[in-house]
Prior knowledge:
The structure holds 2 protein chains of 2 kinds.
Chain A: H1 8-16, H2 22-40, E1 43-46, H3 51-63, E2 75-79, H4 106-113, E3 117-122, E4 142-143, E5 146-150, H5 156-163, E6 169-174, H6 180-185, E7 189-192, E8 212-217, H7 220-230, E9 260-264, H8 265-268, H9 274-289, E10 293-297, H10 302-320, H11 339-350, H12 353-366, H13 372-392, E11 398-402, H14 417-424, H15 429-434, E12 438-445, E13 451-458, H16 463-475, H17 486-493
Parallel strand pairs in A: 2-3, 2-6, 9-10, 9-11
Antiparallel strand pairs in A: 1-3, 4-5, 6-8, 7-8, 7-12, 11-13, 12-13
Chain B: E1 4-14, H1 53-65, E2 69-70, E3 73-74, E4 77-80, E5 90-93, E6 100-109, E7 112-125, E8 129-133, E9 138-142, E10 149-155, H2 162-179, E11 191-200, E12 211-216, H3 219-238, E13 246-251, E14 256-262, E15 272-273, E16 280-281, H4 284-292, H5 298-309, H6 313-319, H7 323-336, H8 342-363, H9 374-385, H10 391-404, H11 408-415, H12 423-436, H13 438-445, H14 450-462, H15 469-483
Amino acid sequence: MESHKLTIHEIKDLIDNGKLSIEELVKGVIQRIGKTEAQIKAFNTLETEKIVEEARAIDDFISEGKPLSNLAGIPLGVQDNISTLGIRTSCSSRIIETFIPPYDASVIGRLKEHHAIILGKLNMDEFGIGASTETSAFGPTRNPWNLHRVAGGAAGGAAAAVAADQAFYALASDAAGCLRQPAAFCGVVGLKPTYGLVSRYGLIASAPSLEQIGCITKDVTDCAYVLEEIAFHDKKDPTSPKACRSKYTKGIIDDIRGLKIGIPKEIFDESWDPDVRDSINVALDMFKQLGADLVDITLPHSKYAAAAHFILMTCEASSNLARYDGIKYGTRIGDGHSLESLYIKTRSLGFGQEVKRRVMLGNLFLNAKYYDSYYKKALKVKSLLRKDFNEAYKKCHIILTPTTPISAYNFTSEIDQAMETNQSQRYTLLANMAGIPAITIPCGLSNDGLPIGLQLMADLFNEKTLIRTAFTFEHNTDYHLKKPMQLEVAQNEL
Amino acid sequence: MSYETVVGLEIHVELKTRSKMFCACTTAFGGQANSQCCPICLGIPGALGVINEKAIELAIKTGLALNCHISEYNTMDRKNYFYPDLPKAYQNTQQYHPICRNGYLDVDINGNKKRIGITRIHLEEDAGKLIHDSENSLSLIDYNRAGVPLIEIVTEPHIESGEEAVAFLEELRRILLYLDVSDCKMQEGSLRCDVNLSIRPPGQIELGTRTEMKNLNSFRAVHRAIKYEAKRQYLAVESGEHILQETRKWDDLKGESIAMREKQDADDYRYFQEPDHMPFIVDDNLLDKIKANMPELPRQKRDRFVSEYGLPYYDANILTASKAMADFFEICLELYDKNKGTKSAKTISNWFMGDLMRVMKELGVEIDGLRLSPSGLVQLLKLVDEGIISGSIAKEVFDDMCKSGEDPTEIVKRKGLKQISDVDELRGIVREVIEENSNSLEDYKAGKKKAFGYLVGQTMKKTRGKANPQLVNKLLKEEITNQL
């Protein structure tokens, strides 16, 4: 059995019926990683040596009839910016290349309590800055659908690993669409929950007011399974609300009759890849057939969102990344004779080019002379956009856009990463600016055979509606069942 | 030409919370280096803190006591700068929305009331401490203090001299202690004061260029530093120099300030709202709750001691110097006299002004460092009132009580200090004294009235002070008359 291809809910059925053991599952996925990792390069750190033992222990629990979580024994990958006790967490940066956290992020703690199995840490753009994993200090991750294309980013490692069946699901963070854009590029499901719904404690964020931990899964049902486990109140996270959570698996319903889907005029008027346009049009017809009403809405400030987002993100990054100074942990470069030269050498050599550029820009935007014209104005756009969404959600339940206006592009290490982020994440970052939940699901393939994603956005804490809408679409289409073929060929070539 | 001195103070006060500003680590002073830290206060990547509600409460209490407007909408902001003692490379502070604004404090200066404006009070966190080991040319960092909650109190430039600054600081310190907001120990750094000073010709409205003085470790240092700096600026201006806007370090041993660095407008801390936290709201519920629990403040208490107990201002001022002392006084008065009469109040106050202050000074302790209890003191007063011991014996008993905590009745019994009021017994002693001092008797007969006092003294000496003085007087007179 090629158990690595299974989804979480399929695994659960097989295990409940005694047709599969966790040990088999874990060995299967380790084997899969062994065969594919050389091409994909999804992982920064692999923990595969230790986990067979863990798997056996869980099999014992199962045979004892102990009640276990839906995620017990299911191997996952964790993006390299989510802290894992005792496992290197590098954010794909030289400056903390050897950093081993002394604690677990709250989500990791919860998953461990529920006997999840961590395969390793996933590649990403350095500190989440970039949109293709090309800024990773350890080299880019490749798109399983076409190894010459980017996997997207920052969460390229997470999306590629799930798409290539190297992990059954992955946790990653999303500050601009850094999780949804790669999920769309790699043809998998990616959810960014409402800001605060999932604890951020232990997330090494570069844009804390925008960034949220989410999950990448093979289908919408799995997404609901994972969200149900990772959404809990955490008193260690000052932005974690006490209530506002529900049984997300109850949202796995094939019924959206009467649901109002908002079509934002400004976004649909923009130019997209023709393939993307075609897929979205087909998807809109499908939603109508399934009983949803399409309503025109307007997001007047969306045209300023990308610029404002860029300012906020760089400002926060410049401050959040200042602690990497070679004093307390991580890389230290310098003879120690002068504090200033220690700072300069450590940070000059420790950070990559794109990170340095953003830090410089962030410092400029926050300078007292420019504060009002950049940072303060960007905050204003953020609150105006939030109002746009409030208005829009009076007319509809869900807002639909393409996840990205383009599909996965070629490796372009020479181009301006900032521009690329703006281009490919300009629709996803709207949800980060408004704090609302958004999901990307596959909705077709381009003429080049690359996945296309559609994005659904709901109002704050309406993840259940999001899941119901996405599930209904998925249940009545087969885009999510398509698998990257390129990988198999590449394997045979080895 | 004469100049007036213009001083504004910036006072950092460590708040008396059990835990730090954003984590559960203890704020205790003096622990082993880096033993009171966690991922949050060490700025370990990914760790998030949750704001300490007790710190917010203490800041509000201070603001209320200083007549401030309390902000409803509050944010924490980041002050970004690099220094090894600052683990996150930013300090959490309140640049844009300080929790308290526009207050004042009335201070008594030479019997006149002066109102000093409070610009703002904001919450912030402390940094760690750098320790330079010059022997091994090492710099070490202790992060125990990193993340300890502080408030910074910023005054308007309403202070005109070192005397005024010290009077303000003393009153402020007294209030903070009353509120139990801080230990206010300057030696341990829980109260730190920076002085902003400029001079200008009288009548000029605009302020001169100011300097900021740091490293002032006592009120006395504040006083001296202001005097020194005002003179330094005066001499500079008089000789045609420009005052530089700079930070200066006070050297208390040399009694002078030294320029540390030029302060420029280019000091850019790139302040922005803390993106890891939501703004926090101080609603009416919270405010009402805090208001309801505000203690009586020193000025109110002092005024009440004058009006309610009829005490002189001088007494009331000393009695209310600390809350512990005032409480001690009031318990004593309640126990001594249910009606809290003026005469009773003054009787007790006299003990405080005299012997109690003396013993505290001798032992170098505050009132709660004595082993004396209010009921013990009252018992002692009653022993005197009832004529069981004399006033002078009472002082001796009092000293013992303060040191041993023993009951006054026990001390009197153990040491046999009971007053001799038995007429026959005392008459015998008086006769002996007259016999032994026949010269004095002759002197007295010859008109030297002073000799009578000597005989009283000898009687007291013989009884080791236990004789009832009134009775001694009476019996001596009788015996002398008999011998005439």
